[in-house]
Write a structure and sequence with these properties.
Helix content is 43%, strand content 17%. The chain has 122 residues and is α+β, with helices and mostly antiparallel strands.
């Protein structure tokens, strides 16, 4: 896959970011993409993590799988919506949702450990 100018800031290196703030074009189609990305996450076996910088996301309308990669320039997807329209596609939103959930879970675990430690010290 070649790198193109339509990348989205890398959530793994820039800390927690809400998917709703990542290069959204603030229109009706973008809201639909965000919702469809959330729907992908809610279905089982739609996302395969190859490593922390590479994912495969199943197409919701065909038998294809799209590659979502974190590059030095940001996140990219191999789907036509992202490659040719330069928008944040539903596959990218799905990955952002997964990453944000992981970050929230890690944060919750840290907060719980801190609370547990404070209770033991009391």
């Amino acid at each position: 896959m070649t790198t193109h100018p339509y990348t989205v800031a890398d959530l793994k290196t820039h800390g927690k970011a809400e998917p709703t703030t990542c290069a959204r074009d603030n229109n009706k189609n973008d809201n639909v993409r965000f919702q469809r990305g959330s729907d992908i996450v809610d279905k089982k076996n739609q996302i395969q993590e190859l490593d922390k910088f590479q994912y495969k996301v199943k197409s919701q309308s065909t038998c294809k799988e799209y590659e979502v990669l974190s590059t030095k320039h940001g996140w990219i997807c191999s789907c036509a919506d992202h490659k040719f329209r330069g928008v944040v596609c539903k596959h990218l939103y799905a990955i952002f949702c997964v990453l944000n959930r992981e970050q929230e879970a890690e944060s919750d675990a840290c907060n719980q450990n801190r609370r547990d430690k404070e209770l033991v010290e009391l």
